[in-house]
Write a structure and sequence with these properties.
heterodimer; A: 368 residues; alpha+beta; Dna Ligase, domain 1; D-amino Acid Aminotransferase, Chain A, domain 1; Rossmann fold; 3 domains; four-stranded antiparallel beta sheet; 35% helix; B: 287 residues; alpha/beta; seven-stranded mixed beta sheet; 9 helices; 14 strands; 22% strand; globular
């Protein structure tokens, strides 16, 4: 789960990582009121995507009236498909120098890595790609946590003259990273100002698997992604017209690849996960069929933990209200029972992923 | 033969009284696995499938002499169950559980290095040695004894491929799912090394997917292998930056797309099949 900048900064502030004073607002008048209490402000779109600066989602204002005008403009736009519903009104701090500090997980080393670069700001990805030597990377042992000398090494790579201040911030950010089960905790830019070092931006991505022990209010948006997640499944919307319901992410990816291979375009990725029950299958079909682009649906199940008779009973439950044609493949645990249950409904049954993918593309595009 | 498990493996089931644990205990027994007991804290003294249940792995080891364990414990408690198995010196730990926090897995893997245990998974279907033993959840009927080693990051896709091999007369020495999580216990290379040394394995099928660099890291070893390796990599359709269910299948910073992996394999001269049936065709052409 990605956190909004303001939510990440609230956490930073609990850990005494310095941040500018700010106020979160959702309308232009609120922006003006918030700006009254500050000298010069930055209005920052709160969206869960990067590159908002380049997309016009950040503006400065030196008076409350200008803050209102800018907030009104930013609140009306969408950035990479994300409508801006809230803006953060933040005290402007002149950066004398922009640095980068981030912590993520190195899958190969199986441990957290802290990355620091004296060249932060908008172009950090170019630096990572073109001059990786300008980034200091320090792996941290998961069982010992960060050592003082490691924090010192990173701090010295950023700015030797500010080492004590930086060591403190690095250790605190590592605390945030582990306490909140982060996949990413990032400050970019970490700025030097005349008042000291301060986190001008904040990015945190929480491991979804750890949400059971983290207390985050979920913002409801009614999206199919969210409905799927709440029902223990995972859904990703795509641009095509073949609806897909598969158990297991690997098989789901193979299924979507095969649909493309036979000339179709998947409308979604959906993994109903291991051990899906009838109710989940029914919900999955509701989610996938609610996309008006969908012309045909493939259900591809190879049961290990998932039982084919459970899947069949979920399908039968929703069949009377379903107007989109189906291609079903059921193999694995209890497949004989599952197929027998579906036998009388005249549904197109397939014996393998490839056969099912070919079948659903033909069903969705009878002209082909 | 085959790798890692055999008829003599003495297997515990951690989480044996849960719905999945109990169901798959029966499946494993039906397959021929020597299940010697189970562990569920607080349920010691009862029986599941005529196998004794213990409160701790230590008690179970003392009573049964188990040397392997399959874990079906819910994600909140799974890391603890793995630590318990490591500290009880279980040789092979197979963790089926999906959804373990990655920070827990980093601690588990760091600790694992200080032990003699091997961890397969988590978030994996386990390991099957047709004709002798199965630790995990792969469906029983799809396997046939033979000479193909299968190693995969996926669960259900592994079933699809094993099923297709079997239906085309290509039996398996061992089928292994290493798991779809970003941080796991056993890598492709670990399994490839075992297949290379296993006289019963004549060729290997490697099934990879988008995200991370686990596939690329196996290339150097595959080039040194005396046995042919056929690979199959999924996720070509996937738009960059989106997670496709497996926590592992995240593309970031231009690393780990399916096409990059396929190109890296082809450049190294490793056959990449374009579909499950393509794997069969490739195998038949070389064997």
């Amino acid at each position: 789960m990605k956190l909004y900048e303001y939510a990440a900064k609230e956490i930073f502030s609990k850990y005494d990582i310095p941040i500018p004073g700010s106020s979160l607002v959702s309308d232009a008048d609120g922006a003006r009121e918030a700006a009254r209490k500050m000298k010069e402000v930055v209005i920052k779109a709160q969206v869960l995507t990067g590159g908002r600066g380049k997309a016009g989602g950040i503006a400065k204002a030196s008076s409350p009236e200008v803050a209102k005008i800018n907030a009104k403009r930013i609140l009306g736009v969408s950035i990479k498909g994300f409508p801006v519903k809230k803006v953060l009104i933040e005290e402007y701090r002149e950066p004398l120098k922009e640095m980068y500090l981030g912590i993520t997980i190195d899958r190969k080393k199986k441990c957290p890595v802290i990355m620091a670069s004296p060249h932060g700001g908008m172009d950090i990805e170019d630096i990572a790609r073109n001059s990786p030597e300008k980034i200091t990377v320090v792996p941290i042992h998961p069982l010992t946590g960060i050592h003082e000398y490691q924090a010192r090494m990173l701090a010295n790579s950023l700015d030797r003259n500010k080492a004590p201040e930086l060591i403190d911030i690095i250790k605190k950010l590592y605390g945030v990273f582990t306490d909140y089960d982060c996949q990413l905790a990032e400050i970019n830019p970490l700025a030097q100002t005349i008042d000291g070092i301060i986190a001008l931006d904040a990015k945190m991505v929480i491991d979804d698997n750890a949400l059971f022990r983290q207390d985050f209010p979920e913002e409801e948006n009614g999206s199919p992604e969210e409905t799927a997640r709440k029902n223990g499944m995972s859904y990703v919307g795509l641009d095509g017209d073949i609806g897909c319901i598969v158990n297991g992410a690997g098989l789901a990816m193979a299924t979507l690849d095969m649909i493309k291979h036979y000339g179709g375009e998947p409308a979604n990725f959906m993994d109903v996960r291991a051990g899906a029950n009838a109710q989940q299958i029914k919900t999955a079909l509701q989610i996938v069929s609610s996309n008006s682009n969908v012309k045909a649906i493939i259900i591809n199940i190879f049961g290990g933990l998932t039982k084919c008779d459970e899947v069949a009973s979920g399908i039968i439950d929703i069949l009377p209200e379903l107007e989109i044609p189906l291609v079903i493949r059921l193999s694995g645990t209890n497949e004989i029972e599952g197929r027998a249950m579906l036998g009388k409904y005249g549904i197109h049954m397939a014996a393998s992923t490839e056969e099912a993918a070919k079948g659903v593309v033909e069903l969705g595009h009878p002209d082909k | 033969m085959g790798i890692l498990i055999n008829k003599d493996s003495r297997v515990l089931v951690q989480g044996i009284t849960g719905k999945e644990g109990a169901f798959h205990t029966k499946q494993m027994i039906d397959f021929g696995t020597n299940i010697v007991g189970g562990v569920t804290p607080g349920k010691g003294g009862i029986e599941v499938q005529n196998r004794p249940v213990f409160d701790s792995v230590k008690e179970a080891m003392d009573e049964t002499g188990a040397n392997a364990s399959v874990i079906f414990v819910p994600p909140q408690y799974a890391a603890d169950a793995i630590f318990e198995a490591i500290n009880s010196r279980i040789e092979l730990i197979v963790c089926i559980t999906e959804g373990i926090p990655v920070h827990d897995m980093m601690r588990v893997c760091a600790y694992l290095k200080t032990s003699s245990s091997r961890l397969l998974g988590p978030n994996c279907p386990g390991i099957t040695n047709p004709g002798s033993s199965k630790l995990g959840i792969m469906p029983n009927p799809i396997h046939r004894p033979g000479n193909i080693g299968v190693v995969s990051r996926s669960g259900t896709l592994t079933y699809e491929i094993v099923d297709m091999l079997t239906k085309n007369g290509l039996g398996q020495s061992t089928s292994v799912g290493i798991g779809g999580d970003p941080v796991n216990g056993t890598s492709f290379v670990d399994i490839l090394e075992l297949f290379e040394d296993d006289p019963e394995t004549h060729a290997v099928v490697l099934v990879g997917e988008i995200g991370g660099t686990a596939e690329e890291e196996s290339i150097d070893f595959i080039k040194q292998m005396s046995k042919p390796v056929i690979s199959y990599i999924v996720g070509i359709f996937a738009p960059p930056g989106k997670t496709m269910g497996h926590a592992g299948a995240i593309i970031s910073m231009g690393v780990g797309t399916a096409l990059e992996k396929i190109q890296a394999f082809e450049k190294a001269g490793i056959t990449v099949a374009e579909s499950p049936s393509g794997i069969v065709r490739s195998l038949k052409s070389i064997l």
